């Protein structure tokens, strides 16, 4: 199957025109708001896997270390405030709703509220730039499940159009590039720094299945690498004319599950150690390209574990900010809502746009 064939099939699942919808739904992962929420939240995240409560207490240590409250919901509310302001600046008063997969406000409850409010159609912005099961397909499943819940409640569900992935959108790339430059300026030896990108690791099998089957898989890792290259080239790390570019090093973080299951590597902390073993002690600008906001994986795995590893190794390390609260990010979301082209700067395609929980392409992401 060719790329054009896949794109044609994908387009058949989304015949919504550029007209503005009745509403926007921001769909996210969810996070606990207090210590009492941590274990029930993790039970939702791991539903169907039979993980005992005692093991979940170990898994939840990062949340407990932060007082039991994930910053993610508050960060998403900040993101929504920015999107509302951007909509209003363009003369739009459409409401913005908030729903989660794993914690309150659950997407099923939110879509029922939308139906009771008379919403007939809504754009859905999922807080992931990426392809793959957890980054894309699972959000389509969330949409389908929420619509079924509305029907079960005796209501008519709104038409829900999932917006496209955006790994190479110019505003997304530029927001990260500026953050990279701001972080780099904090280093004493900024001109000697290397640029390292990090994203959430996933099992190798999940990456191999990411994207429409006709494109050969690995859509997730390819998109991450594409974003890294683009951010480098729009930042102060861009190569001068005639010079070789600084390598856009991509590493991974936050793996979980049994050690016997292979995941994307290297891990960020292992990568830092390997650099020093090879005699490289240059400063590092760390760009969390895989994350829109500073939630637990960023605060713990990067700001705590990676930073402590760098200190132990004698490496200067600074982290670039995430883009979710920036004006550029809000402008990107509104552009997507209003039907602006999702064609970006990169060489790896974006998928993800489909209606009412349908897959964006047959067999996509392990289906």
TrEMBL record:
<feature type="binding site">
    <location>
        <position position="139"/>
    </location>
    <ligand>
        <name>Fe-coproporphyrin III</name>
    </ligand>
</feature>
<feature type="binding site">
    <location>
        <position position="200"/>
    </location>
    <ligand>
        <name>Fe(2+)</name>
    </ligand>
</feature>
<dbReference type="GO" id="GO:0046872">
    <property type="term" value="F:metal ion binding"/>
</dbReference>
<dbReference type="InterPro" id="IPR033659">
    <property type="entry name" value="Ferrochelatase_N"/>
</dbReference>
<comment type="similarity">
    <text>Belongs to the ferrochelatase family.</text>
</comment>
<dbReference type="InterPro" id="IPR033644">
    <property type="entry name" value="Ferrochelatase_C"/>
</dbReference>
<dbReference type="Pfam" id="PF00762">
    <property type="entry name" value="Ferrochelatase"/>
</dbReference>
<keyword id="KW-0963">Cytoplasm</keyword>
<comment type="function">
    <text>Involved in coproporphyrin-dependent heme b biosynthesis. Catalyzes the insertion of ferrous iron into coproporphyrin III to form Fe-coproporphyrin III.</text>
</comment>
<protein>
    <recommendedName>
        <fullName>Coproporphyrin III ferrochelatase</fullName>
        <ecNumber>4.99.1.9</ecNumber>
    </recommendedName>
</protein>
<feature type="compositionally biased region" description="Polar residues">
    <location>
        <begin position="1"/>
        <end position="15"/>
    </location>
</feature>
<dbReference type="GO" id="GO:0004325">
    <property type="term" value="F:ferrochelatase activity"/>
</dbReference>
<dbReference type="GO" id="GO:0005737">
    <property type="term" value="C:cytoplasm"/>
</dbReference>
<dbReference type="InterPro" id="IPR001015">
    <property type="entry name" value="Ferrochelatase"/>
</dbReference>
<feature type="region of interest" description="Disordered">
    <location>
        <begin position="1"/>
        <end position="20"/>
    </location>
</feature>
<keyword id="KW-0627">Porphyrin biosynthesis</keyword>
<keyword id="KW-0479">Metal-binding</keyword>
<keyword id="KW-0408">Iron</keyword>
<feature type="binding site">
    <location>
        <position position="297"/>
    </location>
    <ligand>
        <name>Fe(2+)</name>
    </ligand>
</feature>
<feature type="binding site">
    <location>
        <position position="70"/>
    </location>
    <ligand>
        <name>Fe-coproporphyrin III</name>
    </ligand>
</feature>
<comment type="pathway">
    <text>Porphyrin-containing compound metabolism; protoheme biosynthesis.</text>
</comment>
<keyword id="KW-0350">Heme biosynthesis</keyword>
<keyword id="KW-0456">Lyase</keyword>
<dbReference type="GO" id="GO:0006783">
    <property type="term" value="P:heme biosynthetic process"/>
</dbReference>
């Amino acid at each position: 199957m060719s790329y054009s064939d896949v794109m044609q099939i994908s387009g058949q699942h989304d015949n919504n025109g550029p007209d503005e919808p009745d509403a926007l739904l921001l769909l996210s992962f969810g996070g606990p708001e207090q210590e009492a929420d941590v274990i029930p939240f993790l039970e939702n995240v791991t539903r169907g896997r039979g993980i005992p409560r005692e093991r979940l207490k170990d898994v939840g240590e990062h949340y407990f270390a932060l007082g039991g409250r994930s910053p993610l919901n508050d960060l998403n509310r900040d993101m929504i405030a920015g999107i509302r302001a951007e909509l209003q600046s363009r003369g739009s008063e459409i409401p913005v709703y908030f729903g989660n997969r794993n914690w309150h406000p659950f997407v099923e409850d939110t879509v029922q509220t939308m139906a009771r409010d008379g919403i007939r159609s809504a754009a859905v912005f999922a807080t992931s730039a990426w392809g793959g099961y957890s980054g894309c397909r699972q959000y389509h499943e969330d949409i389908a499940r929420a619509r079924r819940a509305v029907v079960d409640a005796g209501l008519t569900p709104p038409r829900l159009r999932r917006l496209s992935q955006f790994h190479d959108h110019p505003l997304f790339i530029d927001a990260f590039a500026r953050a990279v430059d701001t972080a780099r300026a904090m280093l004493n030896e900024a001109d000697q720094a290397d640029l390292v990108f990090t994203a959430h690791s996933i099992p190798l099998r999940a990456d191999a299945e990411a994207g429409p089957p006709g494109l050969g898989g690995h859509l997730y890792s390819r998109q991450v690498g594409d974003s890294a290259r683009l951010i480098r080239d729009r930042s102060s790390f861009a190569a001068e004319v005639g010079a070789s570019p600084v390598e856009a090093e991509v590493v991974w973080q936050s793996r979980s599950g049994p050690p016997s299951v292979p995941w994307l590597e290297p891990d960020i902390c292992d990568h830092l150690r390997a650099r020093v073993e090879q005699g490289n002690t240059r400063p590092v600008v760390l760009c969390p390209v895989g994350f829109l906001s500073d939630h637990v994986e960023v605060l713990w795995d990067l700001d705590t574990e990676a930073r402590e590893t760098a200190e132990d190794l004698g490496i200067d390390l600074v982290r670039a900010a995430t883009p979710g609260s920036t004006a550029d990010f809000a402008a990107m979301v509104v552009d997507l809502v209003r039907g602006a082209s999702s064609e970006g700067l990169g060489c790896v395609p974006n998928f993800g746009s489909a209606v009412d929980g349908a897959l964006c392409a047959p067999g996509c992401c392990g289906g």
